[in-house]
Write a structure and sequence with these properties.
With about 325 residues, the protein is of the alpha/beta class. Strand 12 and strand 13 form a beta hairpin. About 35% of the residues lie in helices and about 25% in strands. Bound molecules: adenosine-5'-triphosphate (ATP) and magnesium ion. The site of adenosine-5'-triphosphate (ATP) has 14 residues, from strand 2 and helix 1.
Length: about 325
């Protein structure tokens, strides 16, 4: 039976999960419209993987409802599994087979026809930039290549919904870029994507909507731009050449939000109308013959949003110390 709302590929209502006394999910709600990308953003231990595991029927919730492609994940796990591709699911990639052989094998496991398996395999090899490596044993692949093969294998049956748990963690910038391109292509072809990430930049770049979770609760949601608007205004930063100009520059830039770092000779000020104000400041500094080493205009990032909402950063390095004992 298909329930939930037809235009939402995923719908989560009041989901709860505890491990013993540890409340991991504390009643979370969100929806993912069909064909869109949702980023579940949160620090270590926020409950991202737990959510994905429940949605992919690998774990039972304690309370609440979750529908994937209209099917209840608890009552109709079989139907859900047929609609979903999950990375990490086939972590047991055969190291001694080539990438191509692994894809052919998984295709046959899905009982696709021989023709379909061949066609899909060569499509995915091209899409995932694995053409040159496709005949080599997987044990010779780099981390990024393995990750791409893993995702390719989860896509062999062309599922309409995919879950990606931290798809680019640990990848170098080039592999990350390739992964982003692939994810965007999948979304453009109509696939609904739920991904988790700790990287604001990734959520900003890929997601139509972002759900921010912290300590098992949804603390904010919206489009990347809407969330950034909540973090406040633009910030102009000017770095001077010489310390002797600091006082004069302070008078010129004058403003309530003026922040000065005397060691780096940087002055920064926030404003609602960053570009215009920025130009005025530069003109006045020039008039006063104060040389400027560099200048930049900062738009609020999702990092700022996260910091404002939670009082802590979302990056791995920061949270591992602030969230001690959670992992
Ligand atoms: N099987 C388990 N038994 C006990 N505690 C668990 C279990 N699985 C997860 N946890 C705990 O639940 C919390 C949430 O874990 P989860 O893996 O969902 O977080 P996450 O948001 O994916 O974090 P990360 O960014 O580190 O992947 C953590 O504190 C974790 O230690
Ligand atoms: Mg996780």
């Amino acid at each position: 039976m298909v329930r939930g709302t037809a235009h939402n590929a995923i719908e989560v209502r009041g989901l709860r999960k505890s491990y013993g006394k540890l409340k991991v999910l504390n009643g979370i709600n969100f929806k993912v419209p069909t064909g869109s990308i949702l980023a579940l953003l949160g620090p270590n231990g926020a409950g991202k993987t737990t959510t994905i595991r429940i949605l992919s029927t690998l774990l039972q919730p304690d309370d609440g409802k979750a529908y994937v492609a209209g099917h209840d994940v608890v009552e109709e796990p079989f139907e859900v599994k047929q609609k979903v591709g999950l990375t990490g699911q086939y972590a047991a990639v055969d190291q001694y087979l080539s990438g191509e052989e692994n894809l052919l094998m998984i295709g046959r496991l899905y009982r696709l026809s021989k023709q379909d398996v061949q066609r899909r395999t060569s499509e995915l090899i091209k899409l995932f930039d694995l053409v040159e490596a496709s005949k080599r044993p997987v044990r010779t692949y780099s981390g990024g290549m393995r990750r791409r093969l893993d995702l390719a294998m989860s896509l062999i049956a062309a599922p309409p919904i995919i879950f990606l748990d931290e798809p680019t963690t640990g990848l170098d910038p080039r592999s990350r870029q390739t992964m982003w391109e692939i994810i965007k292509k999948l979304a453009a072809s109509g696939t609904t994507i739920l991904l988790t990430t700790q990287y604001m930049e990734e959520a900003d770049h890929l997601a139509d909507n972002i759900v921010v979770i912290d300590d098992g609760k949804v603390i904010a949601e919206g489009t990347p731009n809407a969330l950034k608007a909540r973090a406040g205004s633009d910030r102009s930063e000017i770095v001077l050449v010489s310390a002797k100009d600091l006082d004069k520059a302070k008078d010129i830039i004058d403003g309530q939000s003026l922040q000065i770092d005397e060691t780096s000779l940087s002055l920064s000020v926030s404003s609602k109308n960053g570009t215009k104000q920025f130009r005025q400041i530069l003109e006045e500094l020039e008039k006063a013959k104060i040389p400027v080493e560099s200048f930049s205009l900062h738009r609020p990032s999702l990092d700022d949003v996260f910091l404002k909402l939670t009082g802590h950063k979302a990056t791995k390095e920061e949270t591992s110390s602030t969230k001690k004992g959670k992992k």
